[in-house]
Design goal:
Strand order of the largest sheet: 1-24-20-23-19-18-17-16
Strand content: 15-25%
């Protein structure tokens, strides 16, 4: 529980945002610049700045063991566990997911029967009163390894139920499970959630938490504790959730580098019970706050002969508005929350202009009514703009295919992870400073076992070779710059002008949209105290819809 001073700080900060919401735009800008002390993107582009890694901190920490009470089973079958929420395409509906039964690890396994237990959610608008019921579907997935000495896994029964005809911005109380199994624990204890606000230019989620590359280390638990204290109303998880693939199938200890520790492994193994532990650890938060996920490279988890089957756990465990948003796939989708249209893109499925994802994205962006949802926020796992040596220019092919479409439609903010550090860019398009480009933010510093990234591509001797950083999906489009300060080189010799601020620390971010033109972005570092003034980075992101008109013709990113 947060202490009284922390709660008081949150109340003061929220009241300040409400006051700013009532100010005309010109008065708001004057207050922010002259009196508020927080910079805005109108002050940019900013001189690139780096805060050096604090050597008094550890670069990483070990995974929390599954025996930890926060990860161990707390519910006895058939009671539900790993309860989580996810937004639907609009706030009148919402997904509830949970797991029943016990997962199994071994050589010869018999999967549970998902039809043997009901998928029900009982809910209502008063505590202790649940007059409405919704039903859904259930499934079981397996992770199978046809190699000597490797163990297989089959999950518990995973349930997904979509609640419909909800009232936006309303508190609901619910229990999930199978009511036919009462009184033996067929339903969960009562939980509650608040629906997101309806799409409108004056209504926004109170706080949107953004985190990536979380894992389940001591650093990860600090990140989640810190995030929970900020009381988000929505969570964006930009890929790489559990790092279950840092383990052998037999379990044991996770490692920072799988190929280094297990060079003779016949396949990139995983220990799937880490997913169950992660679901239990996250449940106190995700059973009351919707969490929207997108796949990262650690969700690939190949299985079968030659790794022919991938993403089994990701596809089974999470509900997302795939059908509601018209994508028909969990690899990319969109949804509305108040005046924000969120788009989640897949970096590990076809992103070419001739593919289905690009076609869906183009149609989705065309459907956005900026008079109803002024803000467009896009997330995917692997960053396009990144000045760290790790993953430098790794997804250049994706940038060349898709960046022009985002620019053409005036996307405001882009969140990515993958790089285990924090970096905020100046507004940029095609490696050129551009006041109408999105604000790109890398937030892959959740705390995972692979440790923090500290080397920059512009540090002496740290520039990767063009043959390094090949992506796990897609082609290699590494390039030398043909103009600007880095002309003729693969790496800059100083921090690139499009990189506004970077720091190697674990943490998370909070986005607070004030109105149709102003949004406050705050990056919180784990090592900071929980006082209201303890932030690692903070800026007001300002939309300029009149200056940056949405273009009717396609803009493409040339291959430099």
């Amino acid at each position: 529980m947060a202490d009284s001073s922390t709660n008081a700080g949150h109340r003061h900060h929220h009241c300040l945002l409400l006051l700013l919401l009532l100010l005309p735009r010109h008065q708001l800008a004057s207050h922010l610049v002259d009196g508020g002390g927080i910079p805005t993107t109108l002050d940019g582009p900013f001189t690139p700045a780096t805060r050096a890694f604090d050597r008094s901190l550890r670069q990483g920490s070990a995974d929390v063991p599954l025996s930890d009470p926060r990860l161990a089973p707390r519910a006895r079958p058939p009671s539900p566990e790993q309860i989580s929420l996810a937004a639907s395409a609009n706030p009148t509906s919402l997904w509830v997911s949970w797991v029943t039964g016990r997962a199994q690890v071994g050589s010869h396994l018999t999967p549970l029967d998902p039809t043997a237990v009901r998928s029900e959610v009982w809910y209502g608008e008063r505590a202790g009163h649940h007059p409405r019921v919704a039903t859904g579907s259930a499934e079981v997935y397996s992770q199978l390894y046809p190699y000597p000495g490797l163990l297989n896994y089959t999950s518990g029964v995973i349930h997904h139920v979509r609640l419909v005809n909800l009232t936006p911005s309303t508190r609901y109380y619910y229990r999930c499970g199978d009511s036919s199994l009462l009184p033996e624990g067929g339903l969960s204890d009562e939980r509650s959630f608040r629906t997101l606000p309806a799409p409108a230019p004056g209504a926004y989620p109170r706080r949107v938490a953004v985190v990536g590359d979380l894992g389940l280390t001591g650093n990860s638990t600090s990140t989640v504790d810190h995030l929970a204290r900020n009381h988000p109303s929505l969570i964006l998880m930009v890929g790489d959730m559990t790092y279950a693939n840092q383990y052998l199938t037999t379990g044991g200890a996770g490692v920072p580098c799988f190929s280094c520790s297990f060079p003779d492994a016949p396949i990139r193994e995983s220990y799937q019970p880490r997913w169950d532990g992660w679901g239990r650890f996250m449940e106190p938060l995700t059973s009351r706050v919707p969490m929207m996920v997108i796949e990262g490279n650690h969700e690939i988890e190949p299985q079968g002969h030659g790794g022919a089957v991938t993403f089994a756990s990701y596809l089974a465990r999470f509900a997302v508005p795939a059908e509601e948003s018209g994508s028909g796939t969990k690899f990319y989708y969109s949804f509305d929350a108040g005046g924000i249209h969120f788009i989640m893109l897949g970096a590990y499925v076809d992103y070419n202009r001739t593919g289905p994802q690009y076609s869906w994205l183009e149609k989705d962006l065309q459907r956005v009514d900026r008079g109803v949802t002024p803000w467009v926020v896009v997330s995917w796992h692997s960053p396009w703009y990144n000045s760290y040596a790790s993953h430098y220019q790794e997804f250049e092919c994706m940038r060349q295919q898709m960046e022009g479409l985002l620019y053409q439609h005036g996307v405001d903010i882009v969140f990515s992870g993958h790089v285990h550090a924090y970096e905020r860019m100046n507004r940029v398009f095609n490696y050129t400073l551009d006041t109408c480009g999105p604000v790109y933010i890398t937030i892959g510093d959740g705390g995972n076992i692979e440790k923090i990234d500290i080397d920059h591509a512009d540090d002496p001797g740290k520039c990767p070779s063009p043959g390094d950083n090949a992506p796990e999906f897609g082609g290699v489009c590494h390039l030398n710059f043909t103009s600007g300060p880095a002309k003729g080189r693969f790496c800059w010799e100083r921090q690139p002008e499009w990189s506004a601020f970077r720091e190697s620390s674990f943490g998370h971010g909070i986005l607070e949209v004030v109105n149709s033109t102003y949004a406050l972005w705050t990056w919180h570092r784990n090592q900071d105290t929980y006082g209201q003034d303890s932030v690692g980075d903070q800026i007001y992101i300002v939309r300029q819809p009149k200056e940056c008109l949405i273009q009717s013709t396609r803009v493409t990113s040339p291959e430099w």
